[in-house]
Amino acid sequence: MNKTDVMNKADVMKKADVMKKAIYPILVGLLVVAAPFLMDAFRLNLLAKYLCFAIVALGIGLAWGQGGMLTLGQGVFFGLGGYSMAMYLKLQEGGLPDFMVWSGVEKLPALWTPFANPVFALATAILGPMLLATLLGLLVFRQRVRGAYFAILTQALAAALVILLVGQQGLTGGTNGMTNFYDLFAWDLAEDSTQRGLYFVVAVVLALLYLGARQLVRSRYGRLLVAVRDGEDRVRFLGYDPATVKTVTFAISAGMAGLAGALFVPVVGIISPALLGVVPSLELVVAVAVGGRYALAGAVLGAVVMGYAKTAFSEQFADGWLYLQGALFILVMTLAPKGIMGVIKRARTA
Amino acid sequence: MEAFVNQLPIGLSIGAVLLLIALGLTFTFGQMGVINMAHGEFIMAGAYTAFLLPGLFVPSLVVAFFVAGAMGLVLERLAIRHFYGRPLDTLLLTWGVSLVLQQLARDLFGAPNVQVKAPDWLAGGIGILPYNRLFIMGLAIASVVGVWLYLVRTKHGRRMRAVMQNRRLAATSGIDTGRVDMLTFFIGSGLAGIAGVALTLVGPVGPSLGTYYIVDAFLVVVAGGLGQLRGAVLAAAGLGLLNSYAEFWSDASLAKVIVFAAVIAFLQFRPQGLFTVRSRALS
Amino acid sequence: MRLSNALLATALMVAAAGCGSTGSTGSAEGGDIKVGILHSLSGTMAISEVTVRDAELLAIEEINAAGGVLGKKLVPVVEDGASDWPTFAEKATKLIRQDKVATVFGGWTSASRKAMLPVFERNKALLWYPVQYEGLEASPYIFYTGATTNQQIIPGLDYLKEQGKKKIFLVGSDYVFPRTANKIIKAYATANGMEVLGEEYTPLGHTEYSTLVNKVAQAKPDAVFNTLNGDSNVAFFKQFKSAGLTAEAMPVLSVSVAEEEVTGIGVDNIAGHPVAWNYYQTTATPANDKFVAAFKAKYGAQKVTSDPMEAGYNAVYLWAEAVKKAGTTEVEAVKKAAGGIALERPEGLVTIDGENQHMYKTARIGIIQTDGLIKEVWNSGQPIKPDPYLKGYPWASGLTAG
């Protein structure tokens, strides 16, 4: 009797715990579903954009927060995804894409032809970045290029890609990039209902990727990744190959960025080299730092908070946004290096 | 053929610009592991110093050294010293600082570029090289020699090298590493100020000035090896020549891509740059 | 636990974002008409665009002082495009859908216009774009108050031809305007017995021009046609001059350098070189005397006025005139009323071509003086009919064919 009592108590406690834990996901789920009713189409579209960035941020959280690889070149992968999708959308209109007409290109380049197939475009958007990241990772991590070197290298890669894209105007739209898309699978992108649907797609993709990434971090592999971050050489001495661990993680984060890029294009309606450069990548890294780099949820939170802050501040004080942005980084980095998540955690344990 | 031959001095003069902008970074990055993204804005501060002292070009070199140096000192004292051992965090911190400094410049001096008149004695030139390019090359050489003398001949310089090579051992030997760090940051930032004054001869002077040079500066540092004077000199000259000939045979865009690709490829063979401080320490 | 907190915070953000949207709606209440102004106030393009905003605000102020439009005051809503094309699209949407502005004045780079174009077309809203551009466009929802190619590039070439410059070298920043302009120049050269010795592009923001100047010096052209943009002009002219090349021996005709840029480049480095525009601060018209005086009174005596500023200033007046004629701010009515409107502006007579929504403008070639201002040395005599697709030029027929 005594025994069952104890068991019951444990059961009850477990149940309460589960309920307590479940309450927040349910709340967020409700809000995500309710969002289209709470805000107008324009704001919902902005939220969808922040969620796209949150997917990239999730990848950065994985690579940097868990794996210690500070990548300033996520824009490269985001761009590959975005351009793949944009090429598909442009070919949907039939005829030669508008920018080719004014660039004097007369025939669709061979590189473009397979992108008329949506499966190919989407696969390229995700697998292309993963492949590139794997190649880069194998080259770089094997040579034990890490830390600041890796950061600067990815930065150079982003800068080089931007210059290449800009230079090939007939193929890529140059500085303008690609814009003016009409339909996605026969849905008119300008329709509010299409945009609402896209918002849900982005939200679901983000949720799934988040759950997947969380499983990964909690797995044996995730612990190995953190070990590599904190003591790469020790991990090597234990008989593991840190280069492989890092390469796999880097490839996953690249795939996330690529997918985010592919979702971003129909949501926002434009892809341009400016989105691939060092600055947008850095902004997202900072967003992850603001949210809290050691928790995956922090990365997502940071991207949404910073995206929202950028819109709100730039609407209020058009001139002063750089001050605010700069000051925010300085404050977070000096006072709260673990970001919002760190502050919350400290508040709860105190 | 003539054009081809001309590219040699042009390449060296591009290298001189690269060396000037990167020299300060090799020390702040090499000795302290600080990735100072605000280095470009210290260069900008030097350029604006020249703007504020019209007609006093040579004195402004000295003033700019102290102006940019002082800015670096403030940054080091207020923020960076809390970040030692977290080099990647300094990158984000200093990027925030660079954004604030850019906007500050925009508010103080206005968004458009300002005019800095080159002194009359720099008009003209020998062959393809104008005097102002020769001046920049001379200034780069003088800066390198100055830094070298400082490192080798002075007490402070020797301490700096000691800290660079082994921080803990230096601390154990009674060197006040905090003071050395301060001084290093002051000198490193001051060199950016000098570079800024020199750049007014060839480029725009405006709030975005720093952003045009920062990536190139980091490439030189990475290719040359951290804290390595001769590495920086060789890397700057090499990248300058590569840029000059690549652009000659193709165009400016492709040349930049080639330079980036070359550095990435080079790091495959020498992940620590041209020269490194040999050490048995693991990480 | 960490997860739950993050989720809670995210939820709050979502809620906050939702609340933000329920704010300002409705327009033209209380006798006001909201108009949007969308230029880069931060980032690399702020250099050029901030003063265009200033000129547009001046026009709004003047119109309000004169009693407004249809008896209502104009209220500007200013947004920052931040030199970033997706931001331009976002802010344009905000102005149209949330602020419900009657029209938007904005943009500078071709890329920002291309990014905004679908936003205006899908929402059936109106954009007034104040900068000379590469042509090959005539959106039904954009009015182009700057020059198209046959009002700037081609007159520039006519001028060079008149001056006996046969061999030219093309230098430009790597983006759509220079590339399109150079295609036109090459077609023109072929048809007019001129020779193009070289064509070079540099990335935006490029500052190292010694190699390019070496290439130009070796090619020994009679003139250089310069489509560089922004800060690159400073580096190019400084290095061009210090290489010993002069305006007398090798003039550089620029189409993106106006009064404002001259100070930054340094008068010493650029004096004597020609530029092609439709307006200079020195243009002698009564309307210009008034514009220059008003601008200096509002923003400071040392300020200069330039072509894009004047085109932005004009845009506000032209729109106001169309609204008066239509009797409403409703977009389709304004578009319909706009065709044929002719106003005496600082640059001279400006007439809206109802067909392609570009302006009839007088082309003017000027030489940069040692005081930093530009003196007109040549003009087209009368306003040129806008021809964005160059249909009236037989030699250009191959340029636009798909």
UniProtKB/TrEMBL annotation, chain A:
GO terms for molecular function: branched-chain amino acid transmembrane transporter activity. It comes from the Bacteria. The keyword Transmembrane applies. It is found in: Cell membrane. It is a multi-pass membrane protein. The lineage of its organism: Bacteria, Bacillati, Actinomycetota, Actinomycetes, Streptosporangiales. InterPro entries: ABC_transp_permease, ABC_transptr_urea_perm_UrtC, LivM-like. Its main location: membrane. The chain crosses the membrane at residues 21-39, 45-65, 119-141, 148-167, 197-213, 248-272, 284-309, 321-344. This is Urea transport system permease protein. GO terms for cellular component: plasma membrane. Pfam families: BPD_transp_2. Keywords: Cell membrane, Membrane, Transmembrane, Transmembrane helix.
Automatic annotation (TrEMBL), chain B:
It comes from the Bacteria. GO terms for cellular component: plasma membrane. It is found in: Cell membrane. Keywords: Amino-acid transport, Cell membrane, Membrane, Transmembrane, Transmembrane helix, Transport. It is a multi-pass membrane protein. PANTHER family: ABC TRANSPORTER PERMEASE PROTEIN, BRANCHED-CHAIN AMINO ACID TRANSPORT SYSTEM PERMEASE PROTEIN LIVH. Belongs to the binding-protein-dependent transport system permease family. LivHM subfamily. This is Urea transport system permease protein. It comes from Nonomuraea soli.
